Amino acid sequence: MKKYSFILISGLFVFVLGCASKPPVREVISTNSAPAAIGPYSQAIRAGNILYLAGQIAINPETGRFVKGGIEEQTRQVLNNIRAVLHAAGLFMTDVVQCQVFLSDLNNYSAMNKIYSSYFQEGPPARAAVEVARLPKDALIEIMVTAVKSR
């Protein structure tokens, strides 16, 4: 009986060790196709199959300057920057599962939605949109996303 108990306990121990999951590897994602960080943060961090993108504002990565124009132009540049970081990580806009949209003026909500919806046409991600007192560089919009590599 002791022999069987030892085998059973040993087998259980091996099973538990085999099932213990390792924490996901943390990887910094960076690309010159999106603006460099303007502070102590990464463009994105991959942890396992999840990609966490830092908030993007409307900086043109080619010039390093803020784009001219209103909410439409800024929203377009922000989403292009997001797409560039996603692509650097091997992901696509369709992999985005959640967005946080920060607007300096909630009156820009409809105009932002018009551009935003063209980037997320089918099965758009979950989203929150809020008005904030101020954004870096006095941007009109900042968007932060989370994406999941499901393929």
Strands, helices and their partners?
Layout: H1 2-19, E1 26-29, E2 44-47, E3 50-53, H2 71-88, E4 96-103, H3 109-119, E5 126-131, E6 141-148
Element string (H = helix, E = strand): HEEEHEHEE
Write out the strand line-up for the largest beta sheet, numbering strands in chain order: 1-2-3-6-4-5
> For this structure, what is the CATH homologous superfamily?
RutC-like
Strand proportion, as a percent range, falls in: 15-25%
Structural class: alpha+beta
Number of H/I helices: 3
Highest CATH level, the class: Alpha Beta
> What is the terminal-to-terminal distance?
48 Å
By DSSP, the count of extended strands is: 6
User: At CATH's second level, what is the architecture?
Assistant: 2-Layer Sandwich
The main pleated sheet reads as:
6 strands, mixed
CATH topology: 60s Ribosomal Protein L30, Chain: A
Q: What is the overall silhouette?
A: globular
Rg is 21 Å
Question: Which spans have pLDDT < 50 for at least 5 consecutive residues?
Answer: none
Give me a quick take on this structure.
With 151 residues, the chain is an alpha+beta fold. It has 3 helices and 6 strands; from the N terminus they run H-E-E-E-H-E-H-E-E. A 6-stranded mixed β-sheet has the order 1-2-3-6-4-5, covered by helices on one side.
Characterization of the model:
- The chain is of the alpha+beta class.
- The protein has one domain (23-148): 60s Ribosomal Protein L30, Chain: A.
- Helix content is 31%, strand content 23%.
- It contains 3 helices and 6 strands.
- The chain has helices at 2-19, 71-88, 109-119; strands spanning 26-29, 44-47, 50-53, 96-103, 126-131, 141-148.
- The protein has a 6-stranded mixed sheet with strand order 1-2-3-6-4-5, covered by helices on one side.
- Helix 2 runs parallel beside helix 3.
- The radius of gyration is 21 Å and the shape is globular.
- The N and C termini lie far apart (48 Å).
